[in-house]
Amino acid sequence: MINCVSILLNVIENVETHISLISKIQLHSISVSNPLSILELIADPPLVSNCSKLELTCRISSNSYSNLNIWWTLRNENISTISDIIESYMPSTNQSKLTIECATFQHQGSYACNVQQINESELIYRKETNVKIFSEYSIQVIPLKSLF
Questions:
Q1: Which residues have a Cβ under 8 Å from the Cβ of 25 and sit 6 or more positions away?
Q2: What is the count of structural domains for the chain?
Q3: End-to-end distance of the chain based on CA atoms, in angstroms?
Q4: Residue at 146 is within a domain
Q5: I need a labelling partner for 32 at 20 to 30 A (CA). Which of 8, 13, 46, 142 fits?
Q6: What is the pLDDT of residues 20-73, one digit of tens each?
Q7: Residues 14 and 80 in one domain
Q8: In a domain, 7, yes or no
Q9: Interatomic CA distance for residues 77 and 121, integer angstroms
Q10: DSSP β-bridge partners for residue 74
Q11: What are phi and psi of 138, to 5 degrees?
């Protein structure tokens, strides 16, 4: 009888050890995960006068910036095909930025910031914003008296 109790206590102790290990493994996996997302996409300003400066900023929630593939599109085309756009990455602030010194009508449309973890081939995070370009016109009013 004493042998059975001793064996039963050993089994209970082993089960408790396994449960403790499983709990530690689950807690560890939860703390390691770092969900990737695009926190915000800002167009500054969203309505731009022809040949004015435009900046777009994409802020990303990730601590491993080097593990990310980030690209921008305008009207669903990669911006690398569009002239006059400067793309910069700021790992210290988790931001990707586009700068256009002289935005023209070719720069008008729907911009998207696209982010993908390098080791995940199918999951792409995307956020879009619209930019409008306008021209300033001056109209000269001539009084009717001067025409006669």
A1: none
A2: 2
A3: 127
A4: no
A5: 13
A6: 433 333 333 333 345 788 899 999 999 999 999 999 999 998 766 678 889 999
A7: no
A8: yes
A9: 19
A10: 77, 111
A11: -110, 140
